[in-house]
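User: Diaminopimelate decarboxylase. Structure?
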Amino acid sequence: MYSYEQLAAWRERCQSSFFLLDPDRLRDNYERFFRAFSSRYEKVSVGYSYKTNYLPYVCQCLHRMGARAEVVSRLEYDLALKLGVEPTAIIFNGPLKTAEDIRLALELGSLVNLDSLSEIAPVLAYARQHPEQTVRVGLRVNFDLTRGGVSPLQNGYQVSRFGFCVENGSFAQALECLAAVPNVRVTGLHGHFSTNRSVGVYRQIARKLCRLAKAHLGEQLEFLDIGGGFYGELPATFGMVGVPSFDDYASAITSTLKEELGESSLPLLILEPGISLVADAVEFICQVVDVKENRGERFVLVDGSVHNIKPTMHAHQLPASVVTRNRKAWEGTYHVVGYTCMEKDYLLQGFHGIVPEPGDFLVFGHTGAYTLVFNPPFIRERPPVLVKAGRDVVVARRKETLAEFLPESLYEFSIPGWQAGGYA
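Assistant: Predicted structure:
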């Protein structure tokens, strides 16, 4: 737990609520994840999912530990290059890649996993223009995961919208189209699904990928990409029991690959974790501005927002603690509300604990996943990000200014020719 004086000094430094990254926790998460798989399987490659949190400091930490970059857009691809990632260490996924995106990635030697038929033509065009080059690509596959009439996909979806469908023949069609150009090779399959994250589902995905690879790729098989979505360590406030560990996932996936493919010529196993690495490595710290009562309900107003800590508006309660300067603090029940004008801006509802006073702090844990990337500036600027450095902190992202929020290089602040009655 932090002292009041410590948090006050850090807030004074950035003049705002702020995120706090713990690089030691990030490093520990990565090492435990990698060790769970590499101790059971010889050829393992971890591609960090940029979309989860592409703070350059986070990406750099993970790259220095050996992680590749898993990106799903040209924006993220260019970020990886800017951070010095070797193009051959970039995995380019995602449902929308332009012809230029594909050409560049193939030219630089990145791994491209195609998602739809529209992405095949650019591959064939590039291959015909470079007949001396063997063009290697992967295919994201889509198959039925339903068991007993129950789909494991998130949000109750029955059919995933991603990849080449095995059942309706689009997967076979993609293979046929790509085989039409002699120097194109499909060397791997990508099987990421957004599911309930159970071990059984990952075992099912791994088994299906193996069987598809044996039937359609044969000796061309170089990799199987399981994707991401793994649970990391969850806080008690989520109320979830029996959550799989990294070892549980690793044991199920690697044993399935060995059982299906044999031990002699196993392909590279690619994994794309995101939330399991960064979620609990970041905290959000905001300060109490006011405490008031409305018709018997106590509201604690802070200089943060639910958009900072839960931009996806999931139903789980994040772990929260109060850091107060009042040693005689008392406990009660209250709501913690944010700075926006939205009625639903609740960071906590019906929370029971130490009742804070103006100037005190609230610390929210498990805020590292999707918060920094899925949290556009709304009413106030984006909070800065500090990084623990021993007993001190360093700044990984400064507090946003108006000039950065609405840069003049992008926005017009005057309308030439416009008059009250319209354009002249």
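The chain has two domains: 4-19+280-405, 23-278. Residues 249 and 315 are 25 Å apart (CA to CA).
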